[in-house]
Amino acid sequence: MNHFYVLNGRKIKQYLIVFVAVVFACGIIYAEKGNVSVFTQAEPAAIYSVPTDKKWIALTFDISWGEERAEPILQVLADKEIQNATFFLSSPWVKSHPDIAKKIKQAGFEIGSHGHKHTNYSSLENDEIRRQIQTAHQILQDELGMAPELIRLPNGDFDKRVLKIADELNYKVIQWHTDSMDWENPGVEVITERVLQNAHPGDIVLLHASDSSKQTHEALPVIIDELRSQGYEFVTVSQLLEQTTVQQKAVEDQ
In CATH, what class is 56-249? Predict the structure, then answer.
């Protein structure tokens, strides 16, 4: 009887060792360092917001078609002396409207990719996902002389495959926490309230500068003024991401 328990105790120990090894390989085990959990073997992930104590917020604008709404939005940003914002541009739009795209770049705003074909990338095969991202990258590089490092996928759609391929192509996938839903054109007050009610430090706000969004340029001045009155500073997505680097460094130094 005692032999039975010893034998099975050894087996249980072996099983536990195997289980821990498998979990570790999957990136589930984490180590505590100070008060921060540091996960191992992290898989690529989309970024919705950035944890920070600073009242920083990133206004982001997607553009995939049209030429009537982008310039009024650029004018509002100029009038309000907003120097930091991020525009995600689809490559067909950049080819069709190079002058507006160059105005965005010349104004000093950050530019990210909004992909090429405006479709759900999770529905595509791996090779086609890669082709779409690379095609957009090359067009933005050719037209604007810059190589984007951020991408917001069309329709905000992705799966693990898309995240992995984007990561392999040295892209960070940027989503949003606060969605203005401005493309629905629900009214300036509704757009404004959606943003102001959800805004928080480290937030990424989704707005649009395509022609389908007819009220964004009217809501934007109110949004900017109110957020400023609350003490917010407007930054680019990359400036927000630098906060994660600073925080990680602080953890490593503990």
Answer: alpha beta
